[in-house]
Design brief:
By secondary structure, the chain is of the alpha/beta class. It has a domain of about 210 residues: Alpha/Beta hydrolase fold, catalytic domain (Rossmann fold, 3-Layer(aba) Sandwich), CATH 3.40.50. The protein has an 8-stranded mixed β-sheet, with helices on both faces. The longest helix has 15 residues. The radius of gyration is 18 Å and the shape is globular. The termini are far apart.
């Protein structure tokens, strides 16, 4: 067990440290098979599923911290982009003998889930995106944001400065409210503790700097895995229109909407989110049939 992990960290009793090149992974595993992989968004950690996990009984939930974030130690700062993370997560699953029948991803984790569905030898039967970050930045932000993140990530001093600026509790509260979400004091405290860690900020900045989404978006019409995209109407980080458009682009995409919640809807309303996920997983418990798809296309 890593000594960095606080003794009162969410779901700590399910934590394990796995050394699988190139990273030293912090993963939380609970329940029994079949396997479901849960991937958090940028700047978070597996703790963000602590309220959703109890509602997903009947599955073995595998919840890693992404490389460089939470309590996973990145083995290389050049392995933090979308494709590299998906590759390394796929290797981790193979190394551990995990065979996820579904991958659930929040925000950026939703994009990683779809990329993993493309590359895994035994791909998931279903993908669920929760406020999935499947849209490019618009206008000036689209030009500035990646360049700014690269500049920040290139300096060894910037992460420490960002940590000092962002780690005040009031700043964390404003950030969460800015995403349209209202979570409890314990939830705010968890994010406060994360952004107070320079290593976590370094990993998040590295992910932002290396994030290239456009190739995946161009391939959405070729990704045949059944995908449910859940959007929250008050999400100010990823507007619902992003999920709706992506669902239309995916051959087996479907869309569901939850009113009155924000970007962290899985923490705000875990039972409502689970009520959408569980029937979808029950329906798509078998592998995707490419033959059936071809027959439908000919018909």
């Amino acid at each position: 067990m890593t000594t960095d992990l606080p003794p009162d960290w969410r779901m700590r009793q399910h934590s394990r440290i796995i050394r699988c090149r190139p990273h030293e992974w912090h993963v939380q595993v609970m329940g029994k098979r079949p396997d479901v992989l849960l991937l958090h968004g940028a700047g978070a950690s597996a703790h963000s599923f602590h309220r959703l996990a109890p509602h997903l009984r009947g599955y073995r939930l595998i919840m890693p911290d992404l490389p460089g974030q939470g309590f996973t130690r990145a083995g290389g700062m050049l392995r933090l982009g979308l494709d590299a993370m998906a590759d390394d997560l796929a290797v981790l699953c193979t190394d551990q003998g995990w065979r996820p029948m579904a991958i659930i991803g929040h925000s950026a984790g939703g994009a990683i889930a779809l990329r993993m569905a493309e590359i895994m030898p035994h791909g998931p039967h279903a993908v669920v995106g929760i406020n999935a970050a499947l849209g490019p930045f618009d206008g000036f932000a689209g030009w500035l944001f990646p360049k700014l993140a690269r500049a920040m990530a290139s300096s060894p001093f910037v992460a420490a400065i960002v940590t000092r600026l962002s780690s005040k509790r009031k700043q964390v509260e404003r950030l969460l409210v800015g995403m349209g979400s209202q979570i409890d004091e314990a939830g705010i405290d968890a994010y406060h503790r994360l952004v107070s860690r320079t290593a976590h900020i370094e990993g998040t900045l590295g992910m932002m700097a290396q994030w290239q989404l456009e190739p995946l978006l161009e391939r959405l019409p070729q990704i045949v895995v059944p995908a449910l995209l859940i959007a929250a109407t008050r999400d100010r980080a990823v507007p619902p229109s992003v999920s709706l458009e992506a669902a239309h682009a995916l051959p087996r995409g479907s869309y569901a909407e939850l009113a009155g919640f924000g970007h962290l809807v899985h923490e705000e309303a875990p039972s409502e989110v689970a009520a959408l996920i569980l029937p979808f997983l029950d329906t798509h418990h078998a592998p995707v049939s490419l033959v059936a798809d071809a027959r439908r296309a000919k018909g």
